[in-house]
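for the recovery benchmark. tokens below, seq after
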């Protein structure tokens, strides 16, 4: 029997445009596998839309707030519609960066040292010595992230333009290499190294062709490669994730051999765009894009 899949996409977060691209790619792949697909540009009327459509499964292709922080997952639980990716609790935990860091620390996973402060404490002249990274507490895709290196400062203009809440997360900047790992179910699929042409792998670099070099598999020593996979799978399990996730790591080998991995975060709604890393890693592991999305649909469920 053909499954009716509602592909949830768009929404109203700052990652709306990227979500539309992910959703379109997923919808096409599912249609090619004879699924009945309804593309849903998510608005405030999403409950009424889903009640009208009566899908068998919701494929969550939303990115950012409301789509990957447990909100839409909670709605789908209430409506009894099986959905892809992680459930309410895992999604909420992963999106809350300070709380996720505490949970990872308790599991023995090394993360950059960090502290949550009020925004006004970031005024120029305050004692936050660079190099540091400034992050919103609950945004994805490096939205709002600012790196301040030695000799730089947080300006009055940047402070005035901040639109991500009254609190910020300040972390110690970790030098080294950008390593990302895809985890699917109970298996870490592989690790990729990202070499951005700009300062770091920010939002524009992630979604602009030619702005970063992807090296798959990541050129690490065998033991280090295995360690990256181990950390990522442990983080996935520690949060209680399901479906597919992507772990973002820094590998600091600037002053030591072997280096040390630091877990930056776990993304429970990794992108499905042509430039996205999870499909690229999955392909290297022998899993086509169509097989990837079909597997997620087959494993979709409610947690309640």
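predicted aa per position
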């Amino acid at each position: 029997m053909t499954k009716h899949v509602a592909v949830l996409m768009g929404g109203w977060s700052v990652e709306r445009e990227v979500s539309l691209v992910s959703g379109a790619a997923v919808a096409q792949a599912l249609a090619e596998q004879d699924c009945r697909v309804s593309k849903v540009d998510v608005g405030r009327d999403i409950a009424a839309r889903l009640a009208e459509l009566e899908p068998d499964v919701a494929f969550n292709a939303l990115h950012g707030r409301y789509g990957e922080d447990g909100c839409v997952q909670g709605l789908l639980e209430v409506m009894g519609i099986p959905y892809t990716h992680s459930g309410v609790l895992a999604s909420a935990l992963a999106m809350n960066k300070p709380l996720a860091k505490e949970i990872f620390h308790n599991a023995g996973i090394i993360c950059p040292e960090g502290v949550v402060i009020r925004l006004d404490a970031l005024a120029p002249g305050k004692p936050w010595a660079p190099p540091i990274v400034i992050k919103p507490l609950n945004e994805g895709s490096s939205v709002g992230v600012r790196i301040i290196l030695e000799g730089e400062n947080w300006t009055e203009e940047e402070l005035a333009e901040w639109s991500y809440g009254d609190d910020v997360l300040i972390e110690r900047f970790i030098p080294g290499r950008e390593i990302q790992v895809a985890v699917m179910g109970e298996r870490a699929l592989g690790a990729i190294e990202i070499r951005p042409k700009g300062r770091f792998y920010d939002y524009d670099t992630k979604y602009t062709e030619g702005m970063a070099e992807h090296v798959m598999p990541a050129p690490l020593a065998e033991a280090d490669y295995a360690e990256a996979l181990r950390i990522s799978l442990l983080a996935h399990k520690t949060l209680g994730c399901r479906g597919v996730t992507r772990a973002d790591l820094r590998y600091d080998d600037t002053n030591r051999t072997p280096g040390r991995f630091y877990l930056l975060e776990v993304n429970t709604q990794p992108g499905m765009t042509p430039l996205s890393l999870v499909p690229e890693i999955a392909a290297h592991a022998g899993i086509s894009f169509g097989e990837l999305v079909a597997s997620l649909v087959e494993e979709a469920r409610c947690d309640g």
